[in-house]
From TrEMBL:
Name by which UniProt lists this protein: Alpha/beta hydrolase
Organism: Ktedonobacter robiniae
PANTHER family assigned: HYDROLASE, PUTATIVE (AFU_ORTHOLOGUE AFUA_2G14860)-RELATED, MONOACYLGLYCEROL LIPASE
Keyword Cell inner membrane on entry: no
Database matches in Pfam families: Abhydrolase_6
One GO molecular-function entry: hydrolase activity
Length: 295
């Protein structure tokens, strides 16, 4: 275990092993009851460093390095090699087992979907959870879809994912993430490609682009899961930003409507990135709900 200094004291690196033998890595800081954070796509555990520092004054906060974004676990880190959501859940449960007590689980975007699946897979491992705008597959007349793309009946990925994979194979990560932005946000080709090109210029983001494409495919292959979430008896808060896109709000509402003990929280003047724009606001929201759940 390696320690380093953080805003809430020492930050320890936690190591564990999943049931399939793969290594599990996380960062931990603070003391007290445990809050486990699953970061969003195109990010690492570092993206929640500021939120964790604030929560670490009252809790032991663990930030998992999600398996989908672990380059050391990729068989082809340049072209992408997705793991399943179930495999990501195994990493979550391995950390909870290492902690030795039920934890409060927080997940953001695709990390929120992984969090929901972990809550369903092992409810006794958790006291409750908070989900910030999960990436969900919802139903449509055309089949399964996630904001415009879909997995076809023959299990082949949708056209957007196919084109993104082709771009990665040609060594064009900027084009790949541009296609992703078209699929998820519905941006026009010129704007999406321009944003993708700028993203690919940042080394830290460039290396995560194949992981993001993998993440989208894993979310698609998970399929519609609202029925499973409707059986979840734990207290779960669904969080959305007041300024978030309509598609994100639709996904939050879809889950909030089926959760037996769910409630909805709206972040005023925020969108999908409150952890960056106002980490104190998000930390306060997490802390207030976690406190109620732990009591």
């Amino acid at each position: 275990m390696e320690n380093r200094k953080g805003n809430a004291g020492e930050i320890a690196r936690l190591l564990a092993q999943a049931s399939d033998g793969t290594s599990v890595r996380a960062e931990a800081e603070g003391e007290g009851r445990v809050i486990l954070i699953l970061h969003p796509g195109m990010n690492t555990a570092k993206s929640y460093e500021k939120v964790a520092a604030r929560l670490g004054r009252q809790y032991r906060v663990i930030r998992l390095h999600r398996r989908q974004y672990r380059l050391d676990l990729k068989t082809d880190p340049l072209r992408g090699s997705p793991c399943t959501v179930a495999e990501e859940v195994e990493h979550v449960l391995a950390i909870v087992k290492a902690v030795g007590e039920p934890v409060f689980l927080f997940g953001h975007s695709s990390g929120g979907t992984v969090a929901l699946e972990a809550l369903v897979a092992s409810p006794s491992s958790f006291v409750g959870g908070m989900i910030y705008e999960p990436a969900l597959v919802l139903g449509s007349a055309d089949g399964l879809h996630l904001a415009g793309d879909w997995i076809e009946r023959n299990s082949e990925v949708g056209e957007g994912l196919r084109r993104a994979r082709q771009a990665l194979a040609k060594g064009q990560p900027g084009r790949a993430i541009g296609i992703f932005t078209q699929v998820i946000a519905g941006w026009q080709d010129f704007l999406a490609n321009s944003a993708g090109a700028l993203t690919a210029l940042v080394p830290a983001y460039r290396q995560l682009i194949p992981c993001q494409i993998d993440d989208l495919e894993a979310m698609e292959r998970l399929g519609i899961r609202l029925d499973a979430y409707s059986k979840l008896k734990l207290p779960v808060a669904m969080v959305c930003g007041e300024r978030s896109p309509d598609g994100n709000l639709e996904m939050v509402s879809a889950v909030a409507d089926v959760l037996p003990r769910g409630e909805r929280i709206t972040l005023s003047r925020q969108g999908h990135a409150c952890h960056v724009r106002d980490p104190q606001k998000l930390a306060d929201v997490i802390e207030n709900f976690a406190k109620r759940v732990f009591e």
